[in-house]
C-alpha cells in the first residue's frame, strides 16, 4: 500500500489534544487510520534566522511520523501573517475591505513554499501519495514538480473559494490558479466552491471543461470536486461520556437546570460573525423579555492570529459589545453573556455542547465549521439541543435540518433563536436524528477515503 504524506501549515501530534482549529483535528484523525508522514511548519519562529532556511525536526507518534520545519521571523511574518492571513484569508472569506495587499508578502509566501518543497523532496518515495492542505501551500505542488516530483499530488482547500470577481482582487490570482493545475485532484468543502472554481477557470483562463469535474488549462488536466470534511462522530460522542466531558456536563447541568444555555465556540476570527451574533442575542432580550434572567450566552472565543491588527480590533469590539449588554441587562445574580477569551480543551467541549439548549454557529463565511458537527454528535438524542446555523457556512449545504439563518440579519437571527428556544421536543428529536444521520454518513473517515480513492483514480498526467 502507498504511504500517505500529508502536508499542511499546522501539524499537531494526533495523540495529544489539538489546539483550536478544525484542520489539525481532522488531519490527525485522518492520518491515524493508516499512518503516514505529516509534514509542515513546526510552530517555531526563529528570531534573526535566515530567510528561506529552517531546521527540520522528526518525531514519531504511533503510526504517524511528524516532520516539521522551523521558520525565521521574516518568513513567518510575510508567509503566514502577511500573504496567507492578510491577503488570502480575508479575500477567500469575501472580505476585500480587510485585505492588506502589501507587495512584499508574496516573496515570503513563495520562499516558504520553496523551502517546504526542498525539505520534503528527499523524504519522498516514488509511490507516496501526497496530500497538500490549505491556502498557505497552494504553490507547493508546482514547486515539487519543478524539482522533478512525479507522484500523485492532491490538494484540499479548507476555506471557501470566492466567486471569480472577488478572487480576481488578489494581484497574483492567475498565478495561484495556475499553481493549482500542478495537482491531480483539487478538493473543496462545498459545491458552491466547485462552481466558483469552474466559472473562474472558464472565464479568466479559458480552461476547457472536459466534464463537470475535469478541466484542462496550462497544458495540464485537473479534477475538482467537493468533499465536505466531517468529524469522527463516535469518538466525539464517546468524549461526552469520558471523565473530562462528564465532569463538565454535570457541573454545567446543575447550574443551568433552571436557565437556558446558548453556546458559541470558535476562534476569535472576523469570519465567525461574533459581533453580529451578540447583537442578535441583545435583540432577543429586547424583543422577548421572558428570556431576561434566563437565557445566557456562553461565548468561547479562543485567541487566534493576534499579531494581526484586524484580530486585535475585533477583540476590542467584541469585548465592548459584551460589556455593554451585561451592563444594560445584567442583574446581581445573572449576567446575560459569559465571554471567554481562552482556548477550552477539546475534551471538555462535548460536555458543554450537551448541556446547551441552542448552539449559535453563525459565521459570515466559513469553509465548513466542525463545531456545528461536534454539537450534533454530543447531544442526548432523547432531549437534544437545537443548532442555529449560518447559511454561509459550508456545513449548511449538508445540515439542512438546522435552523438556517442569515447572520447579517440581526433581527431575523434573533427570531430564529427564539424559535429554537421554544421548539417542541418532538421537533427537536426529529431534526437531531436527521442531522446525526447526515454527519454519520459523511464523517471524517468517509472524507479521507472518498478523497484518497478519487486521487488514486485520477489519470496521471
Ligand atoms: O492555523 P490557524 O491559523 O491557527 O487557524 C486554524 C485553522 O483555521 C482554518 O480552518 C478551516 O478548516 C476547518 C476544517 O476543514 C474548517 O471546518 C473551517 O471552516 C476552516 O476555517 C484554516 O483553514 C486552517 O488551515 C487553520 O489551521
Ligand atoms: O476553545 C476552543 C475552540 C475551538 N476548539 C476546536 O477547534 C475546532 C474549530 O474548527 P472549525 O472547523 O469549527 O473552525 P476553524 O477554527 O478551523 O476555522 C473544533 O474542532 C473545536 O472543537 C477547541 O478545541 N477549543
UniProtKB/TrEMBL annotation:
InterPro entries reported for this sequence: Glyco_trans_20, Trehalose_OtsA
Pfam families linked to this entry: Glyco_transf_20 (PF00982)
Record GO biological process: trehalose biosynthetic process
This enzyme's EC code(s): 2.4.1.15
SUPFAM superfamilies: UDP-Glycosyltransferase/glycogen phosphorylase
Catalysis: reaction(s): D-glucose 6-phosphate + UDP-alpha-D-glucose = alpha,alpha-trehalose 6-phosphate + UDP + H(+)
A GO MF term: alpha,alpha-trehalose-phosphate synthase (UDP-forming) activity
Domain of life: Bacteria
Annotated pathway: Glycan biosynthesis; trehalose biosynthesis
Keyword tags: Glycosyltransferase, Transferase
Function in brief: Probably involved in the osmoprotection via the biosynthesis of trehalose. Catalyzes the transfer of glucose from UDP-alpha-D-glucose (UDP-Glc) to D-glucose 6-phosphate (Glc-6-P) to form trehalose-6-phosphate. Acts with retention of the anomeric configuration of the UDP-sugar donor.
Subunit structure: Homotetramer.
Protein family (similarity comment): Belongs to the glycosyltransferase 20 family.
Protein name: Trehalose-6-phosphate synthase
Organism: Polaromonas hydrogenivorans
The organism's taxonomic lineage, starting at the top: Bacteria, Pseudomonadati, Pseudomonadota, Betaproteobacteria, Burkholderiales
Amino acid at each position: 500500500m502507498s504511504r500517505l504524506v500529508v502536508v499542511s501549515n499546522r501539524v499537531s501530534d494526533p495523540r495529544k489534544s489539538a489546539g483550536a482549529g478544525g484542520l489539525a483535528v481532522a488531519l490527525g484523525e485522518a492520518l491515524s487510520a493508516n499512518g503516514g508522514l505529516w509534514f509542515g511548519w513546526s510552530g517555531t519562529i526563529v528570531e534573526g534566522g535566515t530567510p528561506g532556511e529552517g531546521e527540520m525536526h522528526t518525531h514519531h507518534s504511533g503510526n504517524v511520523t511528524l516532520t516539521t520545519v522551523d521558520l525565521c521571523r521574516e518568513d513567518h511574518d510575510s508567509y503566514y501573517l502577511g500573504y496567507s492571513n492578510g491577503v488570502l484569508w480575508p479575500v477567500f472569506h469575501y472580505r476585500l475591505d480587510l485585505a492588506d495587499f502589501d507587495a512584499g508578502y508574496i516573496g515570503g509566501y513563495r520562499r516558504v513554499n520553496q523551502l517546504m518543497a526542498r525539505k520534503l523532496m528527499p523524504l519522498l518515495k516514488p509511490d507516496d501519495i501526497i496530500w497538500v492542505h490549505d491556502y498557505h501551500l497552494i504553490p507547493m505542488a508546482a514547486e515539487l514538480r519543478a524539482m522533478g516530483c512525479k507522484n500523485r499530488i492532491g490538494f484540499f482547500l479548507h476555506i471557501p473559494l470566492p466567486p471569480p470577481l472577488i478572487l480576481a482582487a488578489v494581484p497574483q490570482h492567475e498565478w495561484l490558479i495556475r499553481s493549482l493545475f500542478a495537482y491531480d485532484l483539487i478538493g473543496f468543502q462545498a459545491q458552491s466552491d466547485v462552481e466558483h472554481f469552474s466559472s473562474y477557470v472558464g472565464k479568466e483562463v479559458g480552461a476547457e471543461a472536459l466534464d463537470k469535474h475535469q478541466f484542462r488549462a496550462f497544458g495540464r488536466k485537473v479534477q475538482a470536486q467537493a468533499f465536505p470534511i466531517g468529524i469522527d462522530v463516535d469518538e466525539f460522542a464517546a468524549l461526552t461520556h469520558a471523565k473530562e466531558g462528564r465532569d463538565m456536563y454535570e457541573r454545567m447541568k446543575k447550574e443551568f437546570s433552571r436557565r437556558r444555555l446558548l453556546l458559541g465556540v470558535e476562534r476569535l476570527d472576523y469570519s465567525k460573525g461574533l459581533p453580529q451574533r451578540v447583537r442578535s442575542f441583545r435583540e432577543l432580550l429586547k424583543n422577548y423579555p421572558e428570556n431576561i434572567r434566563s437565557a445566557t450566552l456562553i461565548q468561547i472565543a479562543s485567541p487566534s492570529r493576534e499579531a494581526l491588527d484586524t484580530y486585535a480590533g475585533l477583540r476590542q469590539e467584541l469585548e465592548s459589545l459584551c460589556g455593554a449588554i451585561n451592563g444594560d441587562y445584567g442583574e446581581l445574580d445573572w449576567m446575560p453573556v459569559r465571554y471567554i477569551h481562552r482556548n477550552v480543551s477539546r475534551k471538555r467541549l462535548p460536555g458543554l455542547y450537551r448541556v446547551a439548549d441552542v448552539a449559535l454557529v453563525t459565521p459570515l463565511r466559513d469553509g465548513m465549521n466542525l463545531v456545528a458537527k461536534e454539537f450534533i454528535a454530543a447531544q442526548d438524542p432523547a432531549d437534544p439541543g437545537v443548532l442555529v446555523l449560518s447559511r454561509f457556512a459550508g456545513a449548511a449545504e449538508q445540515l439542512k435540518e438546522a435552523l438556517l439563518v442569515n447572520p447579517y440579519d440581526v433581527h431575523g437571527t434573533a427570531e430564529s433563536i427564539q424559535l429554537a428556544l421554544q421548539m417542541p421536543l418532538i421537533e427537536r428529536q426529529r431534526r437531531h436524528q436527521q442531522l446525526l444521520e447526515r454527519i454519520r454518513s459523511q464523517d471524517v473517515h468517509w472524507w479521507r477515503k472518498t478523497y484518497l480513492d478519487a486521487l488514486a483514480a485520477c489519470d496521471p498526467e
